[in-house]
Design goal:
Radius of gyration: 13 Å
Order of helices and strands: EEEHEEEEEEEE
Largest sheet: 7 strands, mixed
Structural class: mainly beta
Strand content: over 45%
Helix content: under 10%
Amino acid sequence: QVQLVESGGGLVQAGGSLRLSCAASGSIFSAYTMGWYRQAPGKQREFVARITLSGNTNYADSVKGRFTISRDKAKNTVDLQMNSLKPEETAVYYCNALRPLRTDLWGKGTLVTVAS
């Protein structure tokens, strides 16, 4: 059963911007810290950004200052604004809901391709 659905991926030129969105059910959105992760070809999935219920944010050092994570409570979405994208950031981007003492929830991902 799909509870998190990512959208907004696509092809963008290096230096360009893209906005990703993660749609969640209200019960999920209102209960957990949520975040974005990415997995580049041949590499491990890595943390990108997260946002708590209180709106506190945290970013990977590599994206700090360029990416912004936010919650849209009216739409039950968690968005990731990505600016100044680099070719090495080509990856499948995944939405995550952190569930302590339970299995975390993951979307199926959306592909972001940054062309040089």
